Automatic annotation (TrEMBL), chain A:
Entry's family note: Belongs to the PEN-2 family.
GO CC annotation: gamma-secretase complex; Golgi cisterna membrane
Entry keyword annotation includes Glycoprotein: no
GO biological process: developmental pigmentation; melanocyte migration; negative regulation of neuron apoptotic process; Notch receptor processing; Notch signaling pathway
Signal peptide from the UniProt entry: none
Residues passing through the membrane, by range: 20-38, 59-77
Protein name per its UniProtKB record: Gamma-secretase subunit PEN-2
Its membrane topology: Multi-pass membrane protein
InterPro entries xrefs: Gamma_Secretase_Asp_P_PEN2
Keywords for the protein's UniProt record, in alphabetical order: Membrane, Notch signaling pathway, Transmembrane, Transmembrane helix
Automatic annotation (TrEMBL), chain B:
Domain of life: Eukaryota
Principal location listed in the UniProt entry: membrane
Subcellular localization(s) per the UniProt record: Membrane
Protein name in UniProt: Nicastrin
InterPro entries recorded: Ncstrn_small, Nicastrin
Family per similarity comment: Belongs to the nicastrin family.
Chain ranges of the Nicastrin small lobe domain: 56-230
Membrane topology of this protein: Single-pass type I membrane protein
An example Gene Ontology biological process: Notch signaling pathway
Residue stretches spanning the membrane: 660-680
Database matches in Gene3D superfamilies: Zn peptidases (3.40.630.10)
Length: 101, 699
């Protein structure tokens, strides 16, 4: 979809939909929001809806940052300590590597 | 193509159409024939030489440890190095310039000190390949522990602290414990054959440092695959076996399990389990299994085979006496499997007896006579071991003394002396210990060693026919070898033990003394059985008695042999014998086996027959797995890991720098071509428009 040809109100509704959708545990929607609307929000000349779009993009970026931090921390801890957790680690895993603890 | 107008009227039209078709087929056939003559060459075969005979060491787990070897999932690659001496290890561990190394050891260097040093330097060691010689070494060595099964016998701290942990006698003084160490590189065994010559030649050509200079790349390398799936201990691997919600459920290990073989001289009702009123049983026990450092090599000639062959011969010697003049007590022959790994078979039988899941009960057992290691000559002396702790009870002591007297009187007139060790000593590792754990039963274990083992290759791959001096004159065919009564069979304790055991069992069961002289073990039978288990199992006698697909391993062969040696023929058709479903047969009292039999002299068809006997199998799986107590200290918890591929191959390997250079050049070519394409496409109008200008000028 080429944002050049989309009227501004539709741009706003798109941005809002992606922003609201990201709350359903879908951080990739926020990522898409940030990447797609970044130019619109910060690099285009000012138009009426731009303030709202800016707000949504900023909030999406914040949410995305939070998700990335949480996931990275959990993944690091899990990969590092799964072997030591024994039974709990095995029950949390989908695929357990063969031959190594 | 349209059909000619005359088709359907005149016959030759069809042939013309067929002519067209057949010529097409002819052309196709010719083209195919051309392809048949074309050959192909595989690049893989030019690079790698696969090893044909590879015997790995595998990973075993118990409640607390993992033992054995492990390799990476994609195999361990190491530059070959043939170790010359223990000092040469320095090259592998410290000074060699091209680690990791794959060390080739002669069997004389496969010692504990070298293996421990290699284990400690395992970042530079990719694996070990041991070349097994054709002849046994002169020095005795045993990879087993020096105190076998010390945690699951009867001598615990509670029973008698002075006798626990081999405080009185170290049974296996030559034991290095190598089989119970953990290595994180693969260890393979190779025979002295063509493959090993190829490997040595490759090493000489490429890896040998000539005149003090370091060997240059490309070097000869070997890759060994033996990735084991299980890890940590039995509880972990059983848990991973049972996880239901993983994406790809996979079994990673299996508990060690097999079957015990047992038979009774008077058939017992096998469907009525538990205590049998009025039944008093003399238990004659022996061990079926053995092991070595490597997987599936377990000759166990002195460790296991000598004992159970003696008991089989005794069962055969007793057949006539027990059928013509049956003694008042029953005699139960029991061959236990899995005894090497913390008494799997005997602990299971005791457990079954305690839970009323076996044909008799522990209260039915009157006494136990076990045949241990009896294969070595050792001045023709047999030693009777008994448990001093249970003998503190006077009634048990009386029974044991009576049994020993009977054994000594049975041995009189034979060329063997039978005596007690003469001092207070615990029982050697034997299945009888598990029965003592449950009940103080009087019993004796017959061995050929007075205190420590005389077997210098206990549970080793060298414990084979050569160690028992079973040799034949060189020009005999296999059939002649089968029938040749070797010196071993003639004068060894195996034969004497069989006769002594048979006579003692008869007297112990209450039989008449007058019949003793007629109970003798048959040297022909002993020699045939020894030949079948130690030299070649695919001989004509075994082929008659045991189905061909079941001849691997001692369990089924012992079962069929016991059935043949103690049972009798029944005249029924083959399918009724096999299915046990004809009402005239008695499956609860007997077991029926279909035996292939021999071919009569005039034909090649084997004449089979149905053998009815009291020989049965009973499951030998440690009770820990039925009770799901995977950290049990009372029962064996041994499991064996599963694996995907076991193989090895050799090839030439290039230096790391060359590999990086090749990769770098490739990446450079890729980037250059991408850049060129980008430049050309962005300047396409300049590059490609010059040809069009003359075309504009039209005339």
């Amino acid at each position: 979809m080429n944002l050049e040809r989309v009227p501004n109100e539709e741009k706003l509704t798109l941005c809002r939909k992606y922003y609201l959708g990201g709350y359903a545990f879908l951080p990739f929607l926020w990522l898409v929001n940030v990447v797609w609307f970044f130019k619109e929000a910060f690099m285009k000349p000012v138009y009426t809806e731009q303030l709202q779009i800016k707000k949504y993009v900023k909030r999406s970026a914040l949410g995305l940052l939070l998700w990335v931090t949480v996931l990275t921390t959990w993944i690091t801890i899990f990969q590092r300590f799964r072997a030591e957790w024994g039974e709990v680690g095995d029950y949390l895993s989908f695929t357990i590597p063969l031959g190594i603890p | 193509t349209s059909t000619p107008a005359c088709c359907g009227v005149l016959p030759f039209c069809r042939t013309r159409k067929m002519d067209l078709l057949s010529s097409k087929w002819l052309v196709n056939l010719l083209v195919c024939c051309l392809f048949v003559g074309v050959g192909c060459n595989s690049v893989e075969k030019k690079i790698y030489v696969n090893l044909n005979y590879t015997v790995p060491c595998v990973r075993l787990l118990n409640a607390t440890h993992q033992i054995g070897c492990q390799s990476h999932l994609s195999g361990n690659v190491g530059v070959l190095h043939v170790l010359e001496s223990e000092e040469n290890l320095d090259w592998v561990l410290h000074s060699g310039l091209t680690p990791p190394y794959l060390v080739i050891l002669e069997s004389s260097l496969f010692t504990r000190s070298i293996m421990m040093k290699l284990k400690n330097g395992s970042s530079r060691v990719a694996g070990v390949a041991v070349v097994t010689p054709n002849a046994n070494p002169s020095q005795g060595t045993s990879p087993h522990t020096s105190c076998p099964n010390e945690n699951t016998g009867v001598y615990t701290e509670n029973y008698d602290p002075t006798m626990a942990r081999c405080n009185v006698t170290v049974w296996n003084p030559l034991g290095t414990g190598l089989s119970y160490e953990e290595f994180d590189f693969p260890i393979f065994a190779m025979k002295e054959d063509n493959d090993t010559q190829v490997i040595r030649q490759c090493y000489m050509d490429h890896n040998r440092a000539g005149n003090g200079s370091t060997p240059q790349y490309p070097l000869c390398a070997m890759q060994l695959y033996s990735h084991m799936s299980a890890v940590t201990d039995t509880a972990t691997c059983m848990r991973r076996n049972n996880i239901n919600f993983s994406l790809s459920p996979e079994m990673v290990c299996d508990p060690l399990s097999d079957f015990n073989v047992w038979a009774s001289t008077r058939p017992l009702n096998n469907t009525a389990k538990g205590h049998k009123e009025g039944e008093s049983v003399v238990l004659a026990a022996a061990r079926l299994d053995s092991r070595s450092f490597f997987f599936d090599i377990a000759p166990g000639a002195e460790s296991g085979v000598s004992g159970f062959v003696a008991l089989l011969a005794a069962a055969h010697a007793l057949r006539n006496a027990t059928q013509e003049a049956p003694p008042p007590r029953n005699i139960l022959y029991a061959f236990f499997h899995g005894e090497t790994f913390d008494y799997i078979g005997s602990s299971r039988m005791v457990y079954d007896m305690e839970k009323n899941n076996f044909a008799v009960d522990l209260d039915n057992i009157h006494s136990v006579l076990e045949v241990g290691q009896v294969g070595l000559h050792a001045e023709s002396r047999l030693w009777l071991h008994s448990d001093p702790v249970s003998r503190k009870n006077s009634s048990v002591n009386e029974e044991v003394k009576k049994l020993i007297l009977r054994l000594q009187s049975a041995a009189s007139g034979l060329n063997v002396s039978v005596e007690e060790p003469g001092f207070s000593q615990p029982l050697p590792p034997s299945s009888f210990q598990r029965f003592l754990r449950a009940r103080p039963i009087p019993g004796v274990v017959i061995e050929d060693h007075r205190s420590a083992f005389t077997n210098s290759f206990y549970e080793s791959m060298y414990d084979n026919a050569e160690y028992l001096n079973i040799s034949y004159p060189p020009d005999l065919t296999p059939d002649e070898q089968l029938e040749y009564v070797t010196d071993t069979a003639k004068v060894s304790p195996t034969l004497a033990v069989a006769t002594v055991v048979a006579r003692t069992l008869y007297i112990q069961a209450g039989g008449a003394e007058s019949r003793l002289g007629s109970i003798n073990a048959d040297p022909q039978m002993v020699t045939r059985i020894l030949y079948g288990f130690l030299v070649r199992s695919n001989n004509s006698w075994f082929q008659q008695l045991i189905p061909s697909d079941l001849r691997t391993g001692p369990r089924t062969s012992t079962w069929y042999l016991l059935a043949n040696l103690t049972g009798s023929t029944v005249n029924v058709m083959s399918d009724t014998c096999f299915n046990n479903c004809v009402f005239v047969l008695l499956p609860q009292m007997y077991s029926y086996l279909w035996v292939q039999g021999a071919a009569p002299p005039n034909s090649t068809e084997r004449v089979g027959f149905c053998m009815r006997s009291a020989a049965r199998l009973s499951k030998a799986l440690s009770p820990a797995f039925d009770l799901h107590e995977y950290t049990s200290k009372d029962y064996s918890t041994w499991t064996e890991s599963r694996w995907k591929t076991i193989k090895g191959r050799i090839f030439l390997v290039a230096s790391h720098e060359l590999e990086m250079l090749t990769l770098g050049v490739g990446v450079g070519v890729l980037l250059t071509s991408l850049m060129l394409t980008y430049i050309m496409s962005s300047k396409a109008d300049i590059l490609f428009s010059s040809g069009r200008e003359p075309a504009n000028a039209t005339y």
